[in-house]
Amino acid sequence: MKQWESQKLRASSKESKKVFGILECNTRIIIKGETVSVISVTKAFKYCLLILNFQSSLRKKKMSYLKQMIMFFILFIMLVISRSDEAFLEPQWCIADEQTPDDVLQEALDWACGPGGADCTLIQPKKPCFLPNNMKNHASYAFNSYWQKFKNKGGSCYFNGAAMVTDLDPSHGPCRIAALP
């Protein structure tokens, strides 16, 4: 915090306004369900100081405006890529839509467990995800298995409108349903 205060004293009022503008953009509260997390304020301070120092060093080098903008853009892209705010990586599952009729779910389940390539071994009799033995739960397991396996390769959680994405964990009892980033 002392570093921020000393930088603030040295910065002109115009640069201070820039810092506060950047700070407002990079600091926000995320509320999801009951979880409340604040994206790192110290990280925002660090980025603000980095940008101010970068801008002042560009002015000292008498670079053309176009070169300054290109360098600033590259720095900005690097800054965005380097952010690792895990608050945005909430786990998600693909489950059967409760309003879908059983015959449509059965057709989608057959595809997911067959040509779709989902791992449906845990919904077989005497396996952890067999109970409750109903179409919605078995289809949810198969849809999620397919989607987790192929979502990063273009696979979707659609199944002809029989499925939907949720952030509520559908696991129950001994049946643990995976959610991969």
Q: Could you describe the 3D structure shown?
A:
A hairpin with a 2-residue loop joins strand 1 (29-32) and strand 2. Helix content is 49%, strand content 9%. Helix 2 (13-26) crosses helix 3 and helix 5 packs parallel to helix 6. The chain has a two-stranded antiparallel sheet with strand order 1-2. The protein has a two-stranded antiparallel sheet with strand order 3-4. It has helices spanning 2-10, 13-26, 41-60, 65-82, 102-113, 135-150; strands at 29-32, 35-38, 93-96, 163-166. It is elongated, with a radius of gyration of 25 Å. It has two domains: 2-85, no CATH class; 93-166, no CATH class. The protein has 181 residues and is mainly alpha-helical. The model is unreliable at 1-42 (pLDDT under 50).
Layout of helices and strands:
Blueprint: H1 2-10, H2 13-26, E1 29-32, E2 35-38, H3 41-60, H4 65-82, E3 93-96, H5 102-113, H6 135-150, E4 163-166
Antiparallel strand pairs: 1-2, 3-4
Helix pairs in contact: 2-3, 3-4, 5-6
* Average residue pLDDT: 74
Tally the helices: 6
User: Can you tell me the overall shape?
Assistant: elongated
The helix-strand sequence is HHEEHHEHHE
Low-confidence stretches: 1-42
Q: End-to-end distance, in Å?
A: 34 Å
Helix content: 40-55%
Which descriptors apply to this entry?
181 residues; mainly alpha; 2 domains; two-stranded antiparallel ribbon; 6 helices; 4 strands; 49% helix; elongated; disordered N terminus; membrane; GPI-anchor; X8_dom_prot; cell membrane
